[in-house]
Fold this protein.
Amino acid sequence: MIKKFLIQWSTFLFILLLTFISTHNPITSNYIEMLKHEASVPAMTSKNPLYEEIVNRKAEFEVAPIDARVDKVWKGIPGLNGLSVNEAASYDKMRKEGVFQKNKLVYDQTSPEVTLDDLPPSPIFRGNSEKPMVALMINVAWGNEFLPGMLKTLKEHDVKSTFFLDGSWVKNNPKLAKMIVEEGHEIGNHAYSHPDMKQLSNDRIREELVKTNDIISATLGLNPHWFAPPSGSFRQDVVDIASELSMHTVMWTVDTIDWQNPAPDQMARKIIDKSEPGSLVLMHPTSSAVQGLEDMIEGLKEKGLQLGTVSKTLSEERIIGKQQQTWY
């Protein structure tokens, strides 16, 4: 009886010791965890034909990331994420049928080595031409009567845009400024008094930008990341100072010239025809813009272009197309 008791007690102590070692010894613990993983995922070994096919064929479908660059014509061009096949997730989606299906591949996005923030300060006139997205840039220093109508149309079509606000306008129209933010739109800096930035001293350039950022921050609780020079007037000093204030200088690819009051349908058609993946569309709150906005949005979407903010359009993130797992 005593001998049996001693054997049982020794066995208990031995098990307790093994448990302690596996818990406190990282080598033993890792080895045990590895064994558990291999035992629980036998399908993900080279012996599994489907998993092996995913591994062997993934290079056919993967896309390398594209670095941001400075173009001779378009200046700062954002990069674009690459796509790598997630082997385990892809296998999990195909496991039920047990056959390889490229439309069920699951991808992870891989970042480029060079982004816009890595480039020397440069103006940006467009996004990456391989990303089928455009941004509506709405510069606001006047035109209050047309803003509610534009916001209504944007909401009806589930479109988010970037509104570049004049600092003095924000000061005088805080309710309208808050209405834009409440609708989910992005806010950018459009200087304080709508000056000709190219003609200002560096001190005045900085004053215009800082004063606008301050009033936007105080009124809306936001810090703009994008600056749009009034009337598109700038010199390199403007771009450099904006960069020092953590803002990129944004121009445009296609201009509505809505301040000249063109026929709304003709204005919309011009924008639709000229817009391409990565286009930045310049607008203002005008009669032509509010009347032609719906046609413009519908036409751009029919052309296969998604509409997003400047941040989304210029980001490295790829977007998924209408067909699942079709990436751009």
Remarks:
- The radius of gyration is 28 Å.
- The first strand starts at residue 69 and ends at 71.
- The domain at 122-314 is CATH 3.20.20.370 (TIM Barrel).
- Confidence is low (pLDDT under 50) at residues 1-9, 11-16, 30-43.
